[in-house]
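P.,

For your records, the input lines for the assembly:
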Amino acid sequence: MTDLFSKFDPLIELRTNLLSQGQEDPFNLVMERVISPTEAVCNGRPTILLGTYNYMGMTFDPDVIEAGKQALDDFGSGTTGSRVLNGTYAGHRAVEDALKEFYGMDHAMVFSTGYQANLGIISTVAGKGDYIVLDIDSHASIWDGCKMGDAEVVPFKHNDIEAMEKRLKRIPEGAGKLVVLEGVYSMLGDIAPLKEMIKVAKDNGAMVLVDEAHSMGFIGPNGRGVAEDQGVLDQVDFVIGTFSKSVGTVGGFCVSNHPKFEILRLVCRPYVFTASLPPSVVHTAATSIRKLMHAGNKRAHLWENSRVLHQGLRDKGFQLGTEKAESAIIAVIMPDLEKGAAMWEALLKEGLYVNLARPPATPANMTLLRCSLCAEHTAEQVQTIIGMFERAGKAVGII
Amino acid sequence: MDRAATAEKIAGIIEPFNKKGVEITDASTFAGDLEFDSLTVMDFVAAIEDEFDIIISMNQQAEIETYGQLIDAVVKLQG
Ligand SMILES: Cc1ncc(COP(=O)(O)O)c(C=O)c1O
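Structure tokens returned:
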């Protein structure tokens, strides 16, 4: 018998080697207690959280929590059914209404996760004979959506407008085209030149999908994302988003102005063939989204946090993923996986949690320590974090 | 462009990507013999696409394992 697991041997060996040196497992951390959006007890230690996607700090918002508790009492713990059968409750409609208002769009469709939203929309909208043109650094859920569908898949170099245009122009006449972009690319925290890219896409007759997972609630005057910030949201055919980041719970969605959008509810398999979100989740999401519409002060404070941390780490001599702070993600580039893992552990012992990211999730085979800021981080916490990075960086020999 | 002319052009394009100077035949595999990782594949495919003004979609790339198969595919894609 061939052991089907033998294909994982190289990865098992890599992990064994790493952990045999006494390294704490970066991919097996337990948050024992969560004190606030920015603090938890991890592996027995009080820890500042700098590696969550809780950008707007909504997870402990009293109104959000109250909405969830009320929904548990009123509607029970789960729907036990698909959105198209017995799984659409008042709360699912309420959160779709909140999304339509948040984005100023005609239609909203809520999925059980953002992963499924990309999987479903991309694989359903682009079919056999159509072409998907996408950035090579796209999120796994976008790639998997491409793989699940029957369209021809054509990647182009990250954020390269000319490479994208050339590929669009080579597509056979008459074929359907979908350009897939992200507002913020979550590994390096860089943003896309959506204004230019969407113009090229439209000039070449393509429909445009933008994944705004990491910008919702934060970037743009109303927190609608990078497309809003660059003044081109009205040109975007489909916005994909998630409740698992700024909204502070779990779930995914697509909003659109396409007049025939509602038909997707019947033909999109990752929407149909799975249970809908629990009532408590959709009520917390709806409450959170409505609060995010009026969160201008929080957005301003989060920008300040992001800029201060970026400047502080750069001044200490760390190599960062972007020249300037472009989002709430600051990626610190590590020389290699071993140093990265050592630095991650040194930070954890200082009392700081960041995300360790390694290939294949990262571009160009980089090892990254990804810091994501929260609107609830205080200015003092940001200074404490910079000090922790300095001590850990010197101990590990990175700076 | 016929197969010989296409092959000659591709031979020129692959040279800077063949860092170890492996001797290339039609049977050489990209992943095995040439040790191309995914980043190299992406840059190499982009160079070929630009030279011949064609698209080699991911779907088509999945079918191409050897150097000879690439030449055949490019000949075909030029129509
Ligand atoms: C760009 C992007 N799209 C989609 C997702 C998926 O979101 P979710 O956590 O809701 O599945 C993520 C999060 O990992 C993401 O980073």
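Two observations worth noting. The CA atoms of residues 165 and 200 of chain A lie 6 Å apart. Chain A has two domains: 19-56+296-396, 62-292.

Regards
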